[in-house]
Amino acid sequence: MESQPSASRSLFRKILGFFFQGLLLVAPISITLYVIWRVLVFFDGLIPLKIPGLGLLIVLAFITLAGAVGSLLIRTRLSKLVARLLDRVPLVRILYSSMQDLMSAFMGKKKKFTRPVLVVMNRENQLMKMGFLTEEDLSALGLGKAIVAVYMPHSYNFSGELFLVPADQVSPLDIPSAEAMKFIVSGGVTRV
């Protein structure tokens, strides 16, 4: 009788975990699209002329201008202020810095997903997996240069796993990193 309540609790936790994972995936996209839509409607209402696509053009120009101004003037000061504020909250600090690192790995000046590699997972069965070399020096972890960090995205999902593997089991791929990412995320369906 004891196993039934714990099994239902386990199922509930799993469903709750899926819900929050879905929320993390859907919320930023939905909120962004909603805000852009509201701004489009706002600008279309301000302009007495009915020119199709003018609102969209204004929003795109505004976003581009905001990006330019943000990168030139505001970003460093604002990001330092936000980082200092968030640095005071222990759990939020970890989440914020992790997300900041992940975003800069994709879009910042410190891009990390530029070196696609092939990792031998099992030599006997010739099992290999594609990934991206993200760090070659793991001395901070006490591992030295014999072990490297390889990020392996999941297929059809926006997540992945980080493996620390012997450097001699990693070989670079001679393909553009964008093509490697498309191939991995598509589950190997996209042609390289």
Keywords:
extended, five-stranded antiparallel beta sheet, 2 domains, alpha+beta, 4 helices, 192 residues, 5 strands
Can you characterise this structure?
The protein has helices at 3-46, 54-86, 90-107, 177-185; strands at 116-122, 127-135, 147-153, 160-166, 170-172. By secondary structure, the chain is of the alpha+beta class. The chain has 2 domains: 3-107, no CATH class; 116-185, no CATH class. A hairpin with a 4-residue loop joins strand 1 and strand 2.
How would you summarize what this structure contains?
It contains 4 helices and 5 strands, in the order αααβββββα. The chain has 192 residues and is an alpha+beta fold. The protein has 2 domains: 3-107, no CATH class; 116-185, no CATH class.
Topology summary:
Elements: H1 3-46, H2 54-86, H3 90-107, E1 116-122, E2 127-135, E3 147-153, E4 160-166, E5 170-172, H4 177-185
Antiparallel strand pairs: 1-2, 1-5, 2-3, 3-4
Helix pairs in contact: 1-2
Which percent band covers the strand fraction? 15-25%
As residue ranges, the low-confidence spans are none
The averaged pLDDT comes out at 74
Count of helical regions: 4
Provide the number of structural domains. Answer: 2
Strand order of the largest sheet: 4-3-2-1-5
User: What percent of residues adopt helix (DSSP H or I)?
Assistant: 40-55%
Rg over CA atoms: 22 Å
Number of strands: 5
Look at the helices and sheets and give the structural class.
alpha+beta
Principal-axes shape call: extended
The main β sheet shows up as: 5 strands, antiparallel
H/E series, N to C? Answer: HHHEEEEEH
The termini sit apart by 54 Å
